[in-house]
Design a protein that fits this description.
This protein has 308 residues and is α+β, with helices and mostly antiparallel strands. It has helices at residues 2-61, 70-80, 84-94; strands at 104-118, 135-150, 153-170, 173-192, 196-214, 218-221, 224-227, 237-250, 253-262, 295-306.
């Protein structure tokens, strides 16, 4: 009986060991089979889950286009990056603006003149009795206006009152010619290089008064000797051309140089001794020097100021 129980117990032990061995082998085999077949799928799922976890914060950080968060970002960009118009304003503020000139303006001008008569038909410089052509100094003052024709080109007429006194000697006696004229230059004025300008045009002259101061000479005619009573009158109208250049020294203040050359005779009606026969000379109808062909030229240094 004891042997029977011993046999039964041995049989059960062997069976339990075999059963346990079968369970262990099955578990290992199932684990190996799971790893080989589904490892790729598991890894794919793990990667998809990781990607979804990484995308969730970016979605949270970047708002949807429909949300109004984009407006502050756009305004911030506008604040940081100035518009082209603002940049141009800054550049214009840093660089000096070009000088602005009004289309219409008016001002005052004064000048100091040096005048000399020229163009005599007889050469006074080579006459031993005459100390050259009459020359002297004077001044002028007047009003000027300007009208813009095109950019940098203006019509700039003037109205000036000019005084000049010229003199020379004849046979040791001084002769002085004083005149007050109304000069009207009709000038075109062109601006060059902002501060410089050139000007030129015709000029008309109206004689307001003229007087010759002449020391009398002793004249012998028909055996009679007496002091001369010469007469000389300046023409009431004259015409010439003027040209010059100027420089802007401060805002509306200018300094200029100008040259005027007369084209008409100063004394067209004056008769000299050569125009008379002996005995035909009347008192006050002649002049000792032949003034035919005499014209006036002037060199002027002026200062002008534009009020507008």
């Amino acid at each position: 009986m004891k042997k029977i129980w011993t046999l039964i117990a041995s049989t059960m032990l062997v069976a339990s060991v075999a059963f346990a061995q079968d369970d262990y082998d099955y578990a290992d085999q199932s684990e190996e089979q799971y790893t080989e077949q589904e490892q790729a799928e598991i890894q794919a799922e793990d990667q998809a889950s990781d990607a979804s976890e990484e995308e969730q914060p970016s979605v949270a950080e970047e708002p949807a286009p429909s949300q109004p968060v984009a407006a502050p970002i756009s305004s911030q960009a506008n604040v940081q990056e100035p518009e082209p118009a603002n940049t141009e304003e800054d550049n214009s503020a840093q660089e000096p603006a070009p000088r602005q000139v009004n289309r219409f303006g008016f001002g005052l001008r004064v000048a100091f003149d040096y005048g000399r008569m020229f163009g005599f038909k007889e050469d006074m410089d080579n006459d031993s009795d005459i100390s050259g052509s009459p020359s002297g100094i004077g001044f002028e003052a007047g009003l000027m206006v300007r009208f813009q024709m095109i950019p940098n080109l203006f019509f700039a007429p003037e109205v000036n009152v000019a005084y000049i006194s010229t003199n020379h000697e004849y046979m040791g006696s001084e002769r002085k010619y004083n005149s007050v004229d109304l000069e009207i230059p009709l000038l075109m004025r062109g601006i060059v290089a902002d501060r410089f300008y050139v000007t030129g045009g015709p000029q008309v002259v109206f004689s307001m008064s003229s007087k010759a101061e002449i020391e009398p000479l002793k004249v012998t005619s028909v055996g009679i000797t007496k002091e001369s009573e010469e007469k000389i009158d300046q023409a009431s109208f004259g015409f010439g051309i003027a040209a010059g250049a100027g420089f802007n020294i401060y805002e509306g203040l200018f300094i200029d140089l100008r040259y005027y050359m007369g084209l008409t005779e100063l004394y067209p009606d004056v008769k000299s001794m050569d125009d008379f026969n002996d005995g035909d000379v009347a008192e006050g109808d002649f002049y000792m020097i032949n003034m035919s062909g005499a014209r006036m030229m002037k060199f002027k240094v002026g200062i002008s100021y534009w009020f507008k």
